Amino acid sequence: MLIDTHAHLIDEKYEENRSEIIEGLQNNRMEILINPAVDLDTSRKGIQLAESWNFIFAAVGYHPHEARHASEEDLKEIEKLSTHPKVVAIGEIGLDYHYDFSPREIQQEIYEKQIDIAKRQKLPIIIHSREAHQDTFDILERNKEGLAGVLHSYSGSWEMAKRYLDLGFYLSISGPITFKNAHKLPEVAEKVPLDRILIETDSPYLTPAPYRGKVNNPAYVRYVAEEICRLRNIEFEELLLQIKENTLALFTKIEM
């Protein structure tokens, strides 16, 4: 039983072997996989993928990199798509001040507008935050009423993690927990309450050891879970059962 709460199976890196990878995930007992979008096109394609495979679910939305392309009509279409029965979240949305592919003020505007969609549709949000934790947090705090979600591939400090947890959000741990140069993340993985932790691969990115440097695969979420178990001195099955419980508690449209 494996769960990957964040994997981009629509990514072009999987064009040649997507079906083979997905069939392999079934063989590896992948029980739940959530495929987030980065724009309107990947939102639509993610839904099509989720319609084809029982264990795959979709999120729809605009990534901060693509925020500059999100028109009012596009956001109306995102909201329309969000009513599909296999769409379980709005995401991934948020802020990225590392690349600044979209101007920061536009990132913030589109982030907040998609939070509004999530609240209207009673869906959680999947949050991308890179070198933007204070603004990410401030916008969440302003909109916290009736809002739920997860900080995907969390990369901040334990101090900032506590502030997100206080708002009721989940933290998702990904491949960098296995990197030798991981400094802040092990502390977060050790201290986050077990009922507020999720795991992911962010495939095809952030490939964990021992496959670092290669294209990621959602099946490698096992290595993320194993490292968390090592850090916390808990059994693999115990963690995976808790992850499933947390996943179903946040993404309430998933029916098992």
Automatic annotation (TrEMBL):
* Pfam families xrefs: TatD_DNase
Q: Name one GO molecular function term.
A: metal ion binding
Q: Which GO terms describe its cellular component?
A: cytosol
Binding positions (a divalent metal cation 2): 128, 152
* Binding-site residues, a divalent metal cation 1: 6, 8, 92, 202
> What Gene3D superfamilies does its record include?
Metal-dependent hydrolases
Keyword terms? Hydrolase, Metal-binding
Q: Which InterPro entries match?
A: DNase_TatD-rel_CS, Metal_Hydrolase, TatD-like, TatD/YcfH-like
Identification of the protein by name: TatD DNase family protein
Which organism encodes this protein? Alkalibaculum bacchi
